[in-house]
Amino acid sequence: MTARAMIQISRLERWGPLYARIALGAAFLSAVAGRFGLWQRTPSMKHFADFIQYTAQVNSFLPAAVIPSLAWTATVAETTLGILLIVGLWPRWVSLASAILLAMFGTAMAISFGVKSPLDYSVFSASGAAVLLALRPSWQACEKASTH
After folding, report:
1. Closest of 21, 14, 32, 148 to residue 93, by C-alpha
2. I want to staple 134 with a disulfide (CB 3.0 to 4.6 A). Which of 68, 96, 98, 148 is the partner?
3. What is the pLDDT of residues 108-133, one digit of tens each?
């Protein structure tokens, strides 16, 4: 391998995880913004009521009574994980939590709508990227340095 190729790989190893963290975090925050009408420039809880209905469709196998709580829990989780991914706090644990959340969402989509739906929306791909971030070896060194 040439020196130039090694430099390019080194840059990818440095910037790739940052790109993945920001992309995943932005996706979470974008979804949350849509639930409150921020992308439509019509902020309103009506949009969140629509999200509760969507949550019921995605989780059609759950009792209706748990759906509003699930919608709020998902919103809080996505907001928290989105911010923490972008900021870069606790990257291993936040990435792992993101992977689990996305895998659960993709599984619920597959159960309710068929496997094509989470594949078309790259839910499992995003979950896989979060797993790779969580398994990144250099996080351990970063986390040790931040605790000392």
Report:
1. 21
2. 96
3. 999 999 999 999 999 999 999 999 99
Distance of alpha carbon 48 from its chain centroid, rounded? 19
Beta strands in 72-111 (DSSP E): none
DSSP code at position 63: -
- Taken as a whole, the chain contains a residue count of 148
H or E stretch at 102: helix 91-113
Contact 90, 143 (CB under 8 A): yes
Model pLDDT for residues 39-80, shown as the tens digit of each residue: 999 999 999 999 999 999 999 999 999 999 999 999 999 999
Paired tokens of 46: 């009506």
